[in-house]
Amino acid sequence: MEIIRRNRTVVILGRGPSHTDYMTENIQCETWASQSTYDELPLRDRINKVFRLHPEELDRPDNICGTIVTFSAIPINKLRSMFGDLFHSSAAWMVGTAIVTGYRTIHLIGIDLFNKEERGIQRDGLFRMMGMAESKGIDFKIGIHSGMYLHRQLYGLQDFVQEFNIKAMEIKDGDGDG
To answer: What pLDDT, on a 0 to 100 scale, did the predictor assign at position 137?
Structure first.
């Protein structure tokens, strides 16, 4: 039986520079992190679930204040049937798990993926998964300090926008044609 969590929100927390947004925002919801994020950030008291997805993490002592999640608790077959082979990072497994367990809003904080050479495939897969989920009404929140926050002009319109802005300034300064 599928679990439905209507109006439920989860934060997926990473170690990227934008993790500091989590320290300043007052987000009251469940928070998930990978084992390495849990180990490195001073936010342990706010993390509810720790995902151990690497073999070297499985034999660690359980001195974690939240729930430990391993691959045995992740609906791998269901996720792969929904999203294919887009799972190139711990964040992708956590996002997929949040989607299939009924979360409606997912905050990605500290999931920055700045380095395109190292993180490119992770970033592309995660963006594709997010697009598929958004088409089903799931809302993603990405902080403006994240490397995943992309604000670019539409292709082909950059010259038009620049020309429009120049003409608008000319009109404002009284130097326009009409």
So the answer is: 92
HEC-encoded secondary structure of the chain: CCCCCCCCEEEEECCCHHHHHHHHCCCCCEEEEEHHHHHHCCCHHHCCEEECCCHHHHCCCCCCCCEEECHHHCCHHHHHHHHCCCCCCHHHHHHHHHHHCCCCEEEEECCCCCCHHHHHHHHHHHHHHHHHHHCCCCEEEECCCCCCCCCCCCCCCHHHHHHHHHHHHHHHCCCCCC
Number of domains composing the chain? 1
The pLDDT of residue 5: 46
Query: Is residue 140 situated within a structural domain?
Result: yes
Please give the Cα distance from 38 to 149 (Å, whole number).
Answer: 23
Residue 51: pLDDT above 50? yes
The answer to whether the beta carbons of residues 90 and 34 sit under 8 Å apart is yes
Average pLDDT over residues 45-53: 85
Q: Is the pLDDT of residue 6 over 50?
A: no
CATH of the domain at 75: 3.90.1480.10
Q: Give pTM, 2 decimals.
A: 0.73
From CA 172, how far away is CA 165, in angstroms rounded? 10
